[in-house]
Amino acid sequence: MNDDVRKYIYGALVVFLVGVLIWVGIVYINACGFTLSCNRGVRVVDTTPVPTMIPATLPALEKSGEEASASEHCYVAAADLVGAWVEAGASDTESFEFTDAAERTCEASFEDVQPLFVQSNLWYAGSRSCVNCHSADVAVSSAQLDLSSYEGIIAGSRRADEAAKGMDILGAGNWESSLLYQFLSETKAGVPGHVEALSGLMISAGTPLSDITATPTP
Ligand code: HEC
Sorting pLDDT into bands at 50, 70 and 90, what band is 170? Predict the structure, then answer.
């Protein structure tokens, strides 16, 4: 007798639970179909047509001449630095002199110039590096120009293969008539990588030759 009642209670419970599961299942499949990646229940995000947050942009760092002279590096337009290097004979070992934005005489070397060709996000926000297109493999590189190494820069553009010498991009030492000057200072409509102006970038590079406080060597 007692056992029968227990059976009825358990039976009713099981039937109830199975019923609930089937009901939830029907509701789910009805809404989502046979999938586990259903997000119909996610709250819809309301957006207003008026932007409520100001996009985070950093203005270019403007340094005055005085601020620049206080630093241990010189402050110069990137294109002018490359120009000074070209005019001084484009050496990979010897240093060259240039005048910076604070009218100081400064000294730099090829090591200061090379990063300008290999760094991305440098000439303008989101810019690709020169090497991204002008890579060491002249078979695929744009204008068959390899800007990834000193040898590549000197070998020039439009090269038939790795061993070939191409067109001088350094204007035989005459900066303003060089191809490199042209492609750094002018915008070239329709040429990827050269659509945006590259001139105007100011960088810290080299060391001032004047007003260095001499530190006595022990
Ligand atoms: C998105 C790819 C791309 C990037 C990045 C790029 N270039 Fe170019 N560049 C080209 C293409 C394409 C040409 C060839 C234009 C043509 O055929 O007239 C070219 C041409 C040149 C030329 C002229 C070569 C010649 O013989 O006509 C020079 C110099 C040059 N680029 C230098 C640079 C420098 C320096 C940088 C980095 C500041 C740079 N490029 C970044 C694609 C790029």
Answer: very high
State which of 118-122, 195-199, 209-213 shows the largest mean pLDDT. Answer: 118-122
Per-residue pLDDT of 92-150, as tens digits, reads 999 999 999 999 999 999 999 999 999 999 998 888 999 999 999 999 999 999 999 99
Length of the chain as a residue count:
218
Q: What residue's CA is closest to ligand 1, atom 37?
A: 130
> For the chain, percent helix, then strand, then coil, each to nearest 5?
35, 10, 55
pLDDT at 75 (0 to 100): 94
At residue 71, the pLDDT reads 62
Alpha carbon of 183 to ligand 1 centroid (Å): 7
142 in ligand 1 pocket by Cβ < 6 Å? yes
For 62, phi and psi rounded to 5 degrees?
Answer: -100, 125
Strand order in the sheet with 96-99: 96-99, 105-108, 207-208
Given the structure tokens 């001499």, which residue do they identify?
214
State pTM to two decimals: 0.70
| Burial of 199 per CB tally in 10 Å (0-12, 13-18, 19+) | middle
Q: How far is the centre of ligand 1, averaged over its atoms, from the C-alpha of 151 (Å)?
A: 17
Q: Give the residue among 130, 127, 100, 102 at the shortest CA–CA distance from 115.
A: 130
Nearest atom of ligand 1 to the alpha carbon of 166: 26
Dihedral sign of CA atoms 98, 104, 105, 109 in order:
negative
Centre of ligand 1 to C-alpha 14, Å, is 75
